[in-house]
Design a protein that fits this description.
The chain has 240 residues and is an alpha/beta fold. 30% of the residues lie in helices and 21% in strands. It has one domain: 4-Layer Sandwich (Metallo-beta-lactamase, Chain A). A 7-stranded mixed β-sheet has the order 1-2-3-4-5-6-7. The protein has a 6-stranded mixed β-sheet with strand order 8-9-10-11-12-13. The longest helix is centred in the C-terminal third of the chain and has 15 residues. The chain binds zinc ion.
């Protein structure tokens, strides 16, 4: 069930079993935006069914937080325009050439191109891997981006973080909601879920300059500011 976070921000809850992350929905007066599109067309259509049932206008734009499969593999099924940072799009462009057969998947695991965690969950989400399709975004930007959705401002800002080189955060200014992608998490491709502590502390220091009241990580929360600090403390205690 989609959850209302603030006056114009909603979130479709994550599902750990299928590695489906939080999908955000931001309702402007002029147009509405999705934050990430989900890991499969089925995931995306569940989100869109929920928005319809809640009489929310169809989103015409989707902003991608980072390239990872669970956030992007439904891009080809999204009817509106998708928008991604250049770094994200460059990686998606490479991934769009991947072949989706059992052999090709096993080979990518062997070379380290794919991570074990993703491989495992892809096979749970997709009954038929030959249906998998990866595409690049319709709109690409470099640096930062601000959007006026109609009485609602969204800032999209890349921040170096411990999870993925291409990560951006989204800040909904009037409602003080921040979408973090998975930025506080460890690195699954190079460090097997481990942390680079410099990148972690740099990220935390930078993102905390936003006056957010609600923090939406891809796979935990949502948190208020205090809960976000506690979540980070757990990472510091257990991982750094
Ligand atoms: Zn991720």
């Amino acid at each position: 069930m989609i959850k209302q976070i603030s006056d114009h921000v909603y979130v479709m809850p994550f599902d750990g079993e299928r590695d489906r992350p939080h999908i955000g929905y931001i309702q402007g007066e002029q147009f509405s935006v999705l934050v990430d599109v989900g890991n499969s067309p089925e995931h995306l259509s569940e989100v869109l069914n929920e928005t319809q049932e809640n009489n929310l206008p169809e989103p015409t734009l989707a902003i991608i937080t980072h390239w990872h499969w669970d956030h992007t593999f439904a891009m080809h099924a999204f009817k509106g325009k998708t928008i991604a940072h250049k770094k994200t799009n460059d990686i998606l462009s490479q991934v769009s050439t991947w072949e989706w057969t059992k052999d090709a998947m096993m080979e990518r695991l062997r070379t380290g191109e794919e991570c074990q965690f993703c491989h495992h969950h892809i096979l749970i989400e997709y009954d038929d891997i030959s249906e998998m399709k990866v595409v690049t975004a319709d709109i690409v930007y470099d640096n930062t981006l601000s959007l006026d959705l109609g009485n609602l401002t969204v800032h999209v800002v890349p921040i170096d973080n411990p999870h993925s080189d291409d990560g951006v955060v989204l800040f909904v200014e009037e409602e003080k909601v921040l979408f973090a992608g998975d930025a506080d998490s460890g690195e699954y491709y190079k460090l097997d879920g481990g942390y680079d502590s410099d990148r972690f502390y740099h990220y935390v220091k930078t993102v905390d300059q936003f006056p957010y009241e609600t923090y939406i990580h891809g796979h935990v929360g949502p948190f208020n500011r205090e809960e976000t600090q506690r979540f980070r403390q757990t990472i510091i205690d257990e991982e750094l």
